[in-house]
Design brief:
This protein has two helices and four strands. It is of the alpha+beta class. It has a two-stranded antiparallel ribbon with strand order 1-2. Strand 3 and strand 4 form a beta hairpin. The longest helix has 12 residues, at 47-58. It is globular and about 35 Å long. The model has no long low-confidence stretch (mean pLDDT 92).
């Protein structure tokens, strides 16, 4: 599941993130993660899980289709 979903008209719908915003220069983005989301094993999803997923997709050795987009992100915390 994505943090947000881009609609055909360019608007964003919440998915795993309930709120998001950026600094005026758009260099820092903050996402509020939905509570109560569980993995298939019953473990609750946390912000640390989101960070780990984003780090995995941005690894230079990744075969992720998101790698091209992730290269533009300096850090995730």
């Amino acid at each position: 599941e994505q943090l947000v979903e881009i609609q055909p008209d360019g608007t964003l719908n919440p998915k795993l993130a309930t709120e998001w915003g950026s600094t005026p220069d758009a260099k820092v983005w903050t996402f509020k993660i939905r509570k109560g989301v569980q993995f298939h094993n019953g473990k609750d999803m946390t912000a640390d899980d989101v960070v780990a997923t984003m780090e995995r997709h941005s690894d230079a050795n990744s075969k992720s289709g998101a790698l091209g987009v992730m290269k533009g992100i300096e850090s995730v915390k």
